[in-house]
Amino acid sequence: MVQVFRLLPLALFPLVAACAATGDEYPSLSTRDIERTGGVMEVEPAPPPPQPAPEKLATLDELAATARAAHAQFLAAAPRARSLAASASGAAPGSERWAVAQVAIADLESKRSEVMIALADIDRIFVEAATSAQDTDSVTAVRTEIDALVAEENAVISGLLATVGR
């Protein structure tokens, strides 16, 4: 009886082999005709991004006006600072002329900071619009304008500091 149990697995092999199917019943894995055709699907263009909210655009205009006004104040104070810096050129640090020129330059830097604060707020509006998938063209135009004002002010201040010898 023990020998019968040992031979039982050997007797099952022919039965298992009979269950295996031939390769004729399965489809071929070669490329089919439908897979050979090519084509291009039409893609709908993405809708344009929405404009920033009107209150953001109003704030943007206010910030631009604030920056322009501060820049006008900067330009009004620049000639006085230039003349004081020119008179302090070559003066010893700590002398009266040097100190007066430094105060005039600090006044210009203060006026520049008002423009830079407006620029920072414009940057915040730009980031909010960009992260909300809104159109940033109007914000970019204002930002470019105000950035140019800051660059002009930076150049004036750098020139004055070089004149004074700081």
| Order of H and E elements | HHHHH
Task: Give the number of DSSP strands.
Answer: 0
Shape: elongated
Mean pLDDT: 84
Class inferred from helices and paired strands: mainly alpha
Low-confidence parts, pLDDT < 50 over ≥5 residues?
A: none
Q: Helix count, per DSSP? A: 5
| Residues in helices, as a percent range | over 70%
What is the percentage of strand-forming residues? Answer: under 5%
What Rg do the Cα atoms give? 39 Å
The end-to-end span amounts to 110 Å
Tell me about the largest β-sheet.
none
Short descriptors:
5 helices, 166 residues, mainly alpha, single chain
Describe, in plain words, how this protein is organized in 3D.
There is one protein chain. Helix content is 73%, strand content 0%. The longest helix is centred in the C-terminal third of the chain and has 36 residues, at 96-131. The chain contains 5 helices and no strands. The protein has a domain at 54-164.
Quick structural summary:
This protein has 166 residues and is mainly α. The chain contains five helices and no strands.
